[in-house]
C-alpha cells in the first residue's frame, strides 16, 4: 500500500492535521522509505499470522493473541471507534494499566485516523481532564471503575467526548445508557461496518502526520503534548531493532507506564516491526509483583527505569545482609570478580582468574532468581541512574545498558550496547541521527541537541514552546547538558531544565550532589537539593520505608534501613522516631560533610538539611509515573520545611 504524499517544507507544526518535512538522508539508516504504523503492522501480520503476539494472565492462565488475532481486533476496534464518532486528528485517550486492550485501542485509534493519547494512571481527574480536553478526545478507554470515575467527574467539561469504554470489569446498566461501554460490547459496535469505511482512513494516513500524542509527565512544568508522527514511530522502532539486534524470537514484559514514550516504543512499536511476543505483567508490577512475572516469563530483553533497578538492588542488598558464613564469603569474592571483570572487559582487557567459577557459583544463580537468565539486553532509560547501582549490577555480571533520550525524540537518542558499553556513559547516537553539543565549555560540556527522523513534529497547539525546542535548522534542544568522548559516547553531566541558580548567581546541577549524598548514606531513599533563587543550598532527605499496596510510604522503616539504623544505635522501627534520633542525624551530618568536602565551591555546599517524615512516592506526588523526581511538586509540598531553612536569612 502506498503512503500518502510526504511533501512539506516545515521542520515543525503545531496543527493537529499538520505535516512536517521528513529528515530523510541520502544514504544509511536515515534513508529508508517512510512507513505508516499500519504498513509496519500489516507487514508483520502477513509474515507471522500464527505467531504469538500478546499474552496476558486471565482466569488463572495465559490468554494469547496471535499476530492475526491482534490485527483482527485492532481493525474491529477501529470500526467501533468510527461508529462512536472518532474524527480524524482527534484523540482516543487511554487510561489504564498495560494490557492487550491498551495496545488494541492505541493502534485502532491510529489506523482510524485519530491520535492515541496515553493518560497516566496516576493522574488526578483534573490532570485527566487536561489531556482529554487538550487532545480533543472523542473517546476515552479506561481500565476499570476507579479510572472511569475520574473521567465521569470531569465529563461535563469535555464537549468533544462521545463515549467511554472500560476494558476490565462490568459497567452498570445506568452508565451503559450514558455511552459507557464494556469492552466486549464496544468490539461489536462496528460489526456491520463495511471494510471500506476503515480502508479510506488507512489510505489517508501519511508518515509525516501525527500518530500519537505523548503528554510529558510534568517533572518540569505543565504537561506538553509531544506530537509523534508515523515516521517518528516506525523509523525509530526499526532503528532500535537494528542496533539492539532484536529478533522475532525475543520476548519482553510490558509493565512500564504506557503513556511514556519508552514503553510505547519498546512494548508496542518495536514488537510491531519484528513480530516478537509481549507478555503483560500484573498491575502490581511496580509495587513488587514484577519479579514474579520476570521469573515466569524469563524475558530476553528487559527495560527498567532507574528506580526499578534501584528497588531490585535494595531487595538483593537486604537478602545479602542476612547471608552469613561461607556463603557470604563466596558472594563477596564473586562480586569483586564481577566488577573487576566487567570493567576490564570495557577496557579491552581479559577477565580475571576465577571468572567462570564466580559465574557458576553466583552470577548464573542470581540471574535465574531474578528471571534474567535468558536476558540478552537489560537496559535503563528515562532518568539518571547512579553509578553505584550500575556497579552493583556489574558486580553481579549484569551490565545494565543506558539509553538516553526524551519524548521529543520518540525515545532514544543514544543507546549503549555490549560492544560500546562504558559504565556512566549513555552510549553512541542512534545511527542515522545527528548529535551536537552546543556552545561547549572548556571540558566539552554543553547543551545536547539532536536532529533526525526521530525528532518530534512539535507540541500540539503550542507554537511558543515548539519554537523554544526546535531551532530554525531543525535541531532539537534537549535542555540536558553533556559531553561526547573521543569514541562518540555521550555522558550526561547536567540538566539545564533543573539547574538551580542561587541568589548569588551560582549555577548548581543538583543531581551529582544528590548522588554523592546517597552514595554516602545508603539508608537514604531520596534526597532533593534546594537553592533556586536562595542564598545557600539546603537538602530534604527521606529514609527508606516499607510501602503499602498502593505504593505509598507506611510509618515503618524498611528492612534494609533497619539493618543500618540498628548499627547506628537506633532501635526504633518507626520513621517518625528515627528521623529525630540523634545517632541517625549525626550520621547524616557526617554524610553531608563528606559530600560538602567534594564540592567544587563554597556555594555548592549544603548548609542545612532536614529529614521528611515519610518517603517520596507516586501517590504522594513527589515522583512521576516513571518514578522520576518531580522537583516543583516537592518544593511546593514541603514549602513550610524549606521556608524554615531560610527564615531570617533572606
Ligand atoms: N539515561 C538517562 N540519563 C540521564 N537522564 C536521562 C536519561 N534518559 C532520560 N533522561 C532525562 O529525562 C528527560 C526526558 O524525559 P521524558 O521525555 O521522558 O519526559 P517526562 O519524564 O515525561 O516529562 P518531563 O519533560 O516533564 O520531564 C531527558 O531530557 C533527560 O533529562
Please tell me about this protein's structure:
With 650 residues, the chain is an alpha/beta fold. Strand 5, helix 5 and strand 6 form a beta-alpha-beta unit. The strands form 7 sheets. It has an 8-stranded mixed sheet, sandwiched between helices. A 4-stranded mixed sheet has the order 2-1-11-10, sandwiched between helices. Helix 9 crosses helix 10 and helix 17 packs across helix 20. The chain has 22 helices and 27 strands. Among the domains are: 211 residues, ANL, N-terminal domain (Rossmann fold); 147 residues, GMP Synthetase, Chain A, domain 3 (2-Layer Sandwich), CATH 3.30.300. The radius of gyration is 25 Å and the shape is globular. The structure holds adenosine-5'-triphosphate. Adenosine-5'-triphosphate binds next to strand 14, strand 19 and strand 20. GO terms for molecular function: long-chain fatty acid-CoA ligase activity. This is Long-chain-fatty-acid-CoA ligase.
Individual helix count: 22
CATH class of one domain: Alpha Beta
What class do helices, strands and sheet pairing give?
A: alpha/beta
Please name the CATH topology of one domain. Answer: Rossmann fold
| Small-molecule binders | adenosine-5'-triphosphate
The residue fraction in helices comes out at 25-40%
GO molecular function: long-chain fatty acid-CoA ligase activity
Keywords: Fatty acid metabolism, Ligase, Lipid metabolism
Pfam families: AMP-binding, AMP-binding_C_3
Protein name: Long-chain-fatty-acid-CoA ligase
